[in-house]
């Protein structure tokens, strides 16, 4: 499974369920399948003291972008004289949780020609990496976004509000994407020494979907022919 970006689990999200519940279930499944966690990459939407508390207690290395709120945290992120600092969530409460933050700043030129300076940071735990490596590793998380786009390509269009049907369609689309990834590793990697190099342009996802559709047509026509033979007899 090394370097293979496949979807292992998909949960239907319910507003009534705490986000920590989903994190716990995902980690439980990962461990039950015998996998280890080198580093857990989370979206800033999971920025909460209880999730950090759980991950630390489980000794799970993790990286998450900072969700800046409050004058103190915003001020620390804007202080370009510091590169790393400790911040307390829920300060002065029984649920106080300390987190380590690597801060950085980005500049971008706006359409009007002015330069905007944005102050950001990563919550890091269990990894002794510099900022460049943290950014590089976290960037790999965006393969998840491409998985969503691929899912949308093959997900059946439906107007039903039945959550079971919609969830089923989503699972099937992710499974198709996983099959494509496995085929790439098995048949479309460059023959060379050293690290594996996958040549996805040799077998693009849209070509895979076309071949699947062709196979379904053959299967359907084959069934129709068999039905005609049975009816004729």
UniProtKB/TrEMBL annotation:
Domain of life: Archaea
Family matches, as InterPro entries: RNaseH-like_sf (IPR012337)
The entry's keywords: Membrane, Transmembrane, Transmembrane helix
SUPFAM superfamilies xref list: Ribonuclease H-like
Transmembrane segment boundaries: 164-185
The protein's name: Uncharacterized protein
Native source organism of the sequence: Methanospirillum stamsii
């Amino acid at each position: 499974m090394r370097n293979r970006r496949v979807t292992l689990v998909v949960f239907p999200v319910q507003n009534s369920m705490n986000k920590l519940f989903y994190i716990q279930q995902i980690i439980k499944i990962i461990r039950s399948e015998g996998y280890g966690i080198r580093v857990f990459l989370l979206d800033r939407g999971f920025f909460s003291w209880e999730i950090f508390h759980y991950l630390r207690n489980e000794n799970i290395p993790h990286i998450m972008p900072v969700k800046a709120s409050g004058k103190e945290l915003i001020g620390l992120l804007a202080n370009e004289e510091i590169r790393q600092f400790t911040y307390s969530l829920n300060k002065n409460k029984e649920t106080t949780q300390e987190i380590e933050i690597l801060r950085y700043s980005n500049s971008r030129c706006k359409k009007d020609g002015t330069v905007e300076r944005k102050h950001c940071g990563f919550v890091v735990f269990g990894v002794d990496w510099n900022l460049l490596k943290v950014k590089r590793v976290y960037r790999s998380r965006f393969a998840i976004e491409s998985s969503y786009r691929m899912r949308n390509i093959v997900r059946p269009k439906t107007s039903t509000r039945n959550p079971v049907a919609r969830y089923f369609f989503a699972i099937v689309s992710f499974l198709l994407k996983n099959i494509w990834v496995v085929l790439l590793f098995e048949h479309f990697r460059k023959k060379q020494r050293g690290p594996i190099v996958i040549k996805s342009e040799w077998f693009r996802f849209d070509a895979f979907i076309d071949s699947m559709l062709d196979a379904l047509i053959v299967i359907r026509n084959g069934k129709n022919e068999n039905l005609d033979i049975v009816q004729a007899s």
